[in-house]
Amino acid sequence: MAGDAEPGAFDIVAHYNSLIEKDASISAPIAAVGSLVKLIEKQHATTMLEFMMITRSACDRLKSATNNSISLSAGCDVFLKQMSRLSHAQSVEECRKGLIKAGTEFVQGAGKCRDSVAEFGSPFVRDEQTILIHSYSRVIMGLLGRAVKQNKRFRVYITESRPDQSGLRAAAELQKLGIPCEVILDAAVGYIMEKVDMVLVGAEGVVESGGLINKIGTYQLAIIAKAAKKPLYALAESYKFVRLYPLSQYDLPTYRSDLLSFKDRSTAEVDWQAELPRNNPVLDYTPPEFITLMFTDLGVMTPSGVSDELIKFYLD
Amino acid sequence: MPPFASGAGQRKLPKPSGSTVGIAVHPRIKEVGLRMATMDISGSNARTVAVMLAFIDVIADYTTPPHTTLVYHLTGYLSPQINFLVHQRPMCIGMANAIRWLKSEIIHTSHDLKEDEAKSQLISKIDGYIKERITAAGDIIADAGAQKIQDGDVVLTFGASSAVQNLLITARKNGRRFHVIVIDSRPEHEGRGLVRRLSKGGNTTGLSDGVTYASLTALSLLMRDASKVFLGAEAFFANGNMLSRAGTAMVALSAHSCHVPVIVTCETYKFNERIQLDAVVNNELGVPDALIDMSSEAMAQDRLNKVCPLNDWRANQRLRLLNLTQDVTPPEFVSVIITEVGLIPTTSIPVVLREYKNQI
């Protein structure tokens, strides 16, 4: 590939990482687009072909350099699609300018996305409801915060969400907002489901089937919610729509065959506790039939509505 | 009265319409029509391509009569040609879509063009349609579908779909190692051809991990071993129902009940705005004699005077043979459709139809 970075050239991966470090609330696709805008500002390609090749290889470098490739690739895909639309422009310079403008607007608009998800979703929260949420998700925090401001009284169960225990962080934030909350064991989801009125989950990525990819545990939560006939609402900003169509848990780009495979341990002393996070997946795939509705910044839609939006975006 | 009980199970052919009289059918159309009637050209893609290529020759040989223009006259000139084709064998949906597209292209041809220019413009458009919607689409589908095959997969397929065959060969070329189960059924036994083509070429292009060939009756047993099901489609309707070779619905149902993903390949030119709820309202009737067992074993028994009771079915007024060639699979049995515009769920067919309509 012609994409190997020359010494002294702009390092997109480093820029991406610094964006993520600087601002804890920025999500991966936004940081990816931000870094790509920076990249095309700094490079001086003279032909359209060179321009497109440099951008494409930067996307590939980003995807391979981070462990969060699904969410990130959503941003890269949007950027590349925009580039191929603008590539019919008169000159490289015009295309570059158009792309910088579109990319900057995208990054600036990202904050608003989360607000409009909260706006569309908050009417679903009603007084005296018990809500179950999984893990920590910024967009869920936004929605619940908005519901509190509307003086709604509700309780929240939060899964501990092993192995990073991100549920504890969510509990601390909700407590500050004055929402009654309790943290439950991941294994207690089935136990608590009968007491719950609705389930809210975030998403790393929303895929073309209308399903979603999220923190491990979402799938089993969704199965239990469906069995208990409780509504499960997924919250996602539209920049998390990815062009993927998983057919099973093992059909994801993050799949590694060594995860949870049986290894020869007959002789060695095994530290099972230390093995756990190393040997386990961090994401799972929830198929569309388990999702009642999606709250997005484009509105409240059924899972199949997501695939319609993706086709509309990528077909024209 | 059960459906089809009134007809004798015979294929009903449309009467050649009056407009056929006096207008000669172009020899290329005759050739293609007869080859379709004898099943020499039988697949949906093969038929559509053959017909469109024939229309290129028809248009090239066409001259507008005096006192009229190409835009007004050509569609009328093509109608008897199309009638002849339908008379040979009912059109498949992809072909009907392609012909409808051609007619609308003719109508929208500019009146200002000279005849030669209009003709060459139409010919290049037909050529583009074949390349973009069928040939290139098939290549994209094969590549995208091959990505879905992983090492160690057991792929089950039914009958013989050219798209599935290309996909399997592409996956093999990409170095994937997987096993194929070909499920086949009477009366056409199309799967045998697929098995032959897949095992040809040894270790390089053939599937060295092996092919299992079995009859539809063994389906429920073999489905437990399958990890993915790949099927070809003749058409998709706007409500997500799939029209395909008879037997496909059974395979999809079985896969669904065993929780095996069903992956269907279909070019978007085969998407239809119509809605069909079952396979009874519209179906193509095959030749009833195909249902009679013509295997050598059966013939040997005939010689021993254990005559097959179906042999002289025509003499029995109360006996009817029904050879339906298509069935309809409900959308909940299809996990994904692989098209040239990407992988889509059955619920998104109306969106694709709408987007293509907007482009015209």
- With strands numbered from the N-terminus, the spatial order across the biggest sheet of chain A is 3-2-1-4-7-9-10
CATH class of the largest domain in chain A: Alpha Beta
Q: What multimeric state do the chains show?
A: heterodimer
β-strand amount of chain B? 5-15%
For the biggest sheet of chain A, the summary is:
7 strands, mixed
For the biggest β-sheet of chain B, the strand order reads 3-2-1-4-7-10-11
Keywords (chain A): Cytoplasm, Initiation factor, Protein biosynthesis, Transferase
Organism (chain A): Coemansia reversa (strain ATCC 12441 / NRRL 1564)
Protein name (chain A): Translation initiation factor eIF2B subunit alpha
Pfam families (chain A): IF-2B (PF01008)
Describe the protein.
The complex is a heterodimer of chains A (316) and B (360). Chain A contains eleven helices and ten strands. With 316 residues, chain A is an alpha/beta fold. Chain A has a seven-stranded mixed sheet with strand order 3-2-1-4-7-9-10, with helices on both faces. In chain A, helix 2 runs antiparallel to helix 3. The radius of gyration of chain A is 21 Å and the shape is globular. The two termini of chain A are 29 Å apart. The N terminus of chain A is likely disordered. Chain B has 360 residues and is of the alpha/beta class. Helices cover 43% and strands 12% of the residues of chain B. Chain B has twelve helices and eleven strands. In chain B, strand 10 and strand 11 form a beta hairpin. In chain B, helix 2 packs parallel to helix 4, helix 4 runs antiparallel to helix 5 and helix 5 packs across helix 6. Chain B is globular and about 70 Å long. The termini of chain B are far apart. The relative contact order of chain B is 0.11. About 4% of the residues of chain B have low confidence. Chains A and B meet through helix 11 of A and strand 11 and helix 12 of B.
